Structures are given as C-alpha cells and as structure tokens.
Fold this protein.
Amino acid sequence: MAYRSSSDAGDADGTAPLRRHLCGLCRPAWPAHLLVALILSGCAANALTGISFFGGQPGAAPHTHLVFVVSTRKSDAGPGANQMRADGADYSLQILSVPPHHKVGEIERPMFGAPDPSKDFVEISRRELDEQSFRNELATNISGRIGSNRDVLLYVHGFNTSYDDARFRLAQIVEDGRFGGIPVLFTWPSSDNLLDYEAARESATASRDTLANLLKDLSEVPDIGKIHILAHSMGTWLSMEALRQRAIAGSPDLNGKLGIVMLAAPDIDLSVFREQLRLLDPSHVSVLISAHDKALSLSETLAGDRPRVGALDPRKPGDRAVLARLGVKVYDLSGESTGLIGHDTYADAPDVVRSIGAQIGRPRVQDEDVQAVLGQKPVSTAVTAEPLPQGAAAPGGPAPAGAPAAPGATTTPASSMPAPVPAQ
C-alpha cells in the first residue's frame, strides 16, 4: 500500500477536493531554518506523499504511457543533472508505467531499493533519438489519431525538480487527467540545491532557445492537433520566454497550433509577464494561482519584493483588478491548496488535475472528425468552434452552483476546478 500524508485526507475513495487551509494560529511553530528549507523546496514533490512501503494487490497490470522527452541536462542523475549539456538537447522516447492501484494526485515511489511496477512509477523502456528521428517518431505516433487525440501536452517543470520527478509527474498528470494525446516533457537543469535559485534561473535562461526550437518542431509536425503547454513555477517563465521568441520569429500562435497555455503557480515578475503577453494572444493563457503558496511568497522576497504573478490574491480588490487587466483566464486554487507549502496544488489535488485533463482533452467541433494521415488531411478552417465554457469540465462532472458560462457556449457540465475569476 502507499503511505499517505495527512494532506491527503478526504473521502474514502480519495477523490474529494482537498481543502486544507493554512492557519498561523493552529499550525505548530517551526524552527526558522527548517521553515526556510521547506519553502525553498516547494517545487519538489512532497518527500512523503506516495512513498510505497509494503503490500500491493497482485494481478492487476500497470498502465503504460509513451512519453517523448527533450532534455538540456548533461545527465539524468548525479552532478551532471544540474549542468547544461554542451552538445545540444538530448531526445528520447520512453515508456513509463503507473502502478495499477495508483492514487490520484500521488507519485508512488519506493522508499528504498529498486522500484516495483506493481507498486511504483517506473521506466519500462527508453530509446535515444536525434532531433530528426524525434520529429519522425512524433509524426508516426500522431498518424492515425482522430480529433483531439492528435494534441500534444508539453510539460515544463519548475525549480528544484529532478529528472525522475519531472517525467513521473508528467506520467501522473496524463494518467489522472486521462489525456488521450501525446505527452512531451521538456526538462532542464533546475538544481537540487535549495539555496541555488539564481543558478537555476541561469539554466532556465540558457534553455530558452532549445524550448523555442522544440515549439517550432512541434508546430511543423504533419496533422498535429493543438499544442497545449502545462508549466509550473520557474518553468512558466521559461515557457513564456520561448513563446515570446516564437512570436518575435513571426509565429505567435505556433502556425495556428497553439492550444491552452496553463501556468501553474507562475514564478514570473508581474512587469515581465506583461511584456511577455504583449506579443501573444492572452486568450490562450490560463493562470492557476493560490493565495496559500509559500514558495512564491519567498520568491517575491528574494526578488526585492517585486510581485510574482502566482502570488497575487484574487480575493483582494487591488490584485483582482491587476489580474483582470492582463486579459488571461485566472483560476483560484486557494480552496484546493495542499500541504504546508501549497506550491503543487495543480497536480496534487485530484479534482484539479482531472479538470486540467478535461480542459486540454475537450473535443473541438472544427476537427473532431479529422484523422492524421501524415499531412494528407488538413484541418478545415470553415468551421468555428464555440467558446469553451467557463469552468469547463470533466465528462459527467457536477456543475458547481452559480458557475457562469461564457456567452454562446454549449451547455456542458462544469468542472470542479474553480471558474475563472471574472473581470472587474
């Protein structure tokens, strides 16, 4: 069975929204040095959640996911994992497995010893590729798919995230969100030193060109659907910079292929974010924020009290007005915040991660019957899709009371993820 921390408390089936609220009056005092270390490690997976100890029910088969990986790390582990490659990006095609009794929001890993596929996330196989074979394999895997199953989900992790944390987090999101397209991981040297924040920022800066080139490659794959981006923390800055570079090169919407850009707990200076958005269509961008995110509060302090986008609180009139002027969709996950740090809510809270999967996997009327045949059947531009409802949702999910729908939207169940914060 998997060990569950107290932050996982909920209904017996483990799918109830996690609504623990941090309260300074009811939380025991923490030694200052320990609190700082915990906050700085906010981007890493919870060290306890999902650790497997004993047991597991035999007979059920693990679920496998094919994942394309692009890395600017010198190596996958050891000191090289925190250093930039000197010879360009590393490309690989991996099959990762999720244990049959996986709990939504968790990444089951062994406390010690080798991972067991019946209880843990593991790598089943891996094949190294060069850039051209990477593009060819993508086209081959997309060929034959129909509608939104031709989409790509590009995941860009944040600070203090190991190679394994990154790839298994993507596998967890794909599994929990029931994403039916092609997952792609972009991993960069984000440092495993809690005090090496600036070094990680420099690695992110050095990785911009490679990520921008990956976006270009994805946009040119024959018959690809939409390219959705899910980025976390410092990875949101890296993603927005790469999109800005593509906009400067004349492709702000990735040749019409840009889908939803979800920025979870964005560690981006507010003034920088405004400049990044200036060259992009903000209607593509969704910001997932939580007022309980302690990691971003510290990042703001380290940056000289310059406000971070993810640390804005939509419940405050001033912050709400700032968010409304940005023109992006804003989802307040404060009510779903988990753990002491509250920095990984987008992937830890079961209802939130399912809603992310529903958002990016929703069928589109303009290409729901389009089948990828290596460029022989392009998407029709004669049909215009209806707007995505606010609070759009997992199939069959209950509609929250009072959730507004966008004008002209089809009637669909609303997600348990909060509706976007309405503009003021």
In short: The two ends are 48 Å apart (CA to CA). The mean pLDDT is 74. The chain has one domain: 30-361.
